[in-house]
Amino acid sequence: MEVVEEYGQAGGGEIPPWDEVVWRILKRNEIRLITYVPDKVLAPLINRVEADDSFRVICPAREEEAVGIVCGAYMAGMRGVLLTQTSGFATLPNVLASLAVPYEIPIVMFISERGTLGDRQLVQTKVWKTMRPALDALGMDYHTVTRADEVEFVVEQTIKQAMATRAPAAIILSPLLTKKNSD
Amino acid sequence: MNSTLQNMARRDAKIMNRSDLTARLVRKLEHGEAVIGGIGSTNHDLWVSGQRPENFYMLGSMGLAVPIALGVAVAQPERKVIALEGDGSLLMQLGSLGTVAAEEASNLIIIVFDNGVYNITGGQPTLTSQQVDLVAIARGAGVSNSEWAKDESHFEQLVERALKEDGPCFIATRTDRKLAPGFSEFNPTKIRHNFMLGIGAA
């Protein structure tokens, strides 16, 4: 059996890659269902959960479907999350506003942030501008992770709060975290 | 089930009544089957058929009855789960049929009430009024156990088989344009909580 341990900030030592930290946090918070629509930035995390039999991983055709699947699974006793890129999140306000938010179903979304900090695609930058206003309008809790040493606290506490308060939430993975040190 | 598959086209299916079919379905549910009612008359008819604790009523998120049902089916593989959906709703989320097939959701049953119109918005025609055949689409998506119900007794036979055998199963019905004779509960928190209690997850 795999040992899932916390990384203490005081322990010194090197901080593992963000995707490894997230994977461990998902496991110890009993998240058993991972839904995603493919994304290059999220690929390391997707590969990790795909390789781990303790997760059920579903890749549907659209992000809206994924929200429905996670909501159904939650109501039946299985916790799930959605991995999506910024443009995928932009397709979701209707189903979040009419399903996850009012029914009080705590779907946690990991959004890889595209359209900022050096994105050369104009269309991505336009979609990026809709993300935080949409999250604000939905009244959803969200945090942006920019540094490796913040991953553990932000992800763990966001998941725990979402589950305890039955409120959907988003964790935005900034290029400062996912791109700056990997290029 | 494959050996008895019919190749009936939509136009050859009898036009039936959704409330009546919903009541016929519910009478056959004896093992705590979960039922997800899609937005609109589908949902209201499910409510009117008797408020089983294992029923979930969608008030929005048009098109998500099948994905929600798939989520329930994945989390509780021992329980049969039934998605009730209208043609207009299903047309919004056709990819979900491919997902259901890919996930081999053997405990999932999809029942579609196809009246060819967006009924509660004034009866504008859907694509099934033109050329779209939802059974052909479901089969093409990989849900091979997909059939049109010829008439009421055939519908009951298809339901009985789907409840007994491994799925996923897709049962399509042609229905008239009568509105549901009532309205479902409108409080989402209450709906979610009662459903979770009903399927032992609260």
Describe this structure in words.
The complex is a heterodimer of chains A (183) and B (202). The radius of gyration of chain A is 16 Å and the shape is globular. With 183 residues, chain A is of the alpha/beta class. Chain A has eight helices and six strands. Chain A has a six-stranded parallel β-sheet, sandwiched between helices. Chain B is globular, with a radius of gyration of 15 Å. Chain B has a single domain (2-198), classed as Thiamin diphosphate (ThDP)-binding fold, Pyr/PP domains (Rossmann fold, 3-Layer(aba) Sandwich), CATH 3.40.50.970. Chain B has helices spanning 18-27, 41-48, 65-75, 87-91, 95-102, 134-141, 152-164, 188-198; strands at residues 15-16, 34-37, 55-57, 81-86, 108-114, 117-118, 124-125, 145-148, 169-175. In chain B, α1 (18-27) crosses α2. The model of chain B has no long low-confidence stretch (mean pLDDT 95). At the A-B interface, α3 and α5 of A face α3, α5 and α8 of B.
